[in-house]
Write a structure and sequence with these properties.
homodimer, alpha/beta, 9 helices, 2 domains
């Protein structure tokens, strides 16, 4: 199954001017298509921070998605950071320059900046406004504006897809220290099933236990063991596949 | 001014089971108290990932806040990861063991795990449920449950506080390529003012320009220059200090 990291580039997120909508969207959509999102980072629009984060994530995961910093203004430095991550040079891409002309934008430093990408970049056409998604090695560069991020991620989703994860949950009306031993034992006996435990204090204190696996047989077995061991007050089985 | 990074430790966030509420809360609250949040990372409950992220962030920023992974179950490994980040050993802390007894929890492996912290850890009493915030070097370890995270961050907020940032904004009804040159020039002339530019496509296409600074005189000057250069349709001045 493919793994991915998301790098959200945006001073405006860290300083609280805009909420991050792209992280939550990526979490939901990558989950649906079976791409394993292992890391999200939110960093400022700084070349050094972008280069370091993209280089480390590109080496550790199958895919890296970046969000933001691809416009025409002085604070848009994502392509410079991605180039620095891999030691690549930057040059205006003829197809992107043509797009600037087609959109009737003035041909100045600002519009040229938007068309200037790392050497060897691939352009993926996405059926919406005609602006392609730029790929540099295993890094896909997305705009930060949520509406555009979502449409463009949708456009390249087939490239990222894998086997989807089945999930089940149960709710136990006890404190976590009373269920920890049973969880540890079932987790150890079912290594392909990820078991999570989340205490909640709204209403009567309870623990939400979740089971995730790409192996539906193992998931069913672990689920049955936990139902027996924990006497849950509520269960949500994995939907049939 | 102090800088900080937030490390959200939670498989449940990356897999979409629960939304991350602690990142948005930390963004808002740290902004209010004048602590400069420079990085947010969301990573799984894995010792190696926690150790690497905490070590890198502790070296780069004044403070690191972690969220999650401090309970009694098999997937709670934050203290092990923080210890590994600094090469520290782990041992049960007598004050935390006493707390386990005071709360009437069973004395088993699970409750002992919650009381086991890196050597040399400091405990900060927080006036709520009596559970202290654990500090290891410049790292503050918080629970992931949003209600607890918020109360405990509130409790140690005075330790993180600095000079607050003043902010102003204006809205321009033009596309970004037409304002980029003016923004770059005002940004270059006012290095203590951070100028951001955010295109939006809801309704009529427009650009939101923001100015942030701890220097209110410089902020006013840059704001006046941009008002003259850009003919905004809407302005929000920095509130007086």
């Amino acid at each position: 199954m493919p793994t991915a990291a998301l790098v959200v580039i945006g001073e405006e997120i860290l300083s609280g001017k805009f909420p991050d909508e792209n992280g939550p969207f990526a979490i939901r959509r990558l989950r649906e298509i079976g791409c394993d999102l292992r890391r999200i980072t939110i960093i400022p629009d700084e070349i050094g921070a972008i280069a370091a984060e993209v280089a480390a994530s590109a080496a550790a995961f199958d895919f890296v998605l970046t969000s933001g910093g691809v416009g025409p203004t002085h604070d848009d430095v994502t392509f410079v950071g991605v180039a620095a991550a891999f030691g690549l040079s930057l040059a205006p891409h003829p197809d992107l320059l043509a797009l600037v002309r087609r959109f009737g934008l003035p041909e100045n430093d600002a519009s040229r900046q938007m068309a200037t990408v790392p050497a060897g970049a691939l352009l993926h056409p996405v059926r919406d406004d005609g602006v392609p998604v730029v790929q540099v090695r295993n890094v896909f560069v997305f705009p930060g504006v949520p509406k555009l991020f979502q449409r463009k991620l949708e456009g390249i989703a087939p490239l990222l897809a894998g086997t989807t994860v089945a999930t089940a949950r149960l709710v136990v009306r006890r404190t976590e220290v009373h269920v920890a031993a049973a969880l540890a034992s079932v987790a150890a006996a079912n290594p392909t099933v990820a078991i999570g435990s989340y205490p909640r204090y709204e209403g009567e204190e309870h623990v939400i236990v979740t089971l995730d696996s790409r192996d539906t047989v193992a998931l069913s077995a672990a689920f049955a063991e936990l139902v027996t061991a924990l006497d849950p007050v509520e269960v949500v089985r994995a939907p049939p596949v």
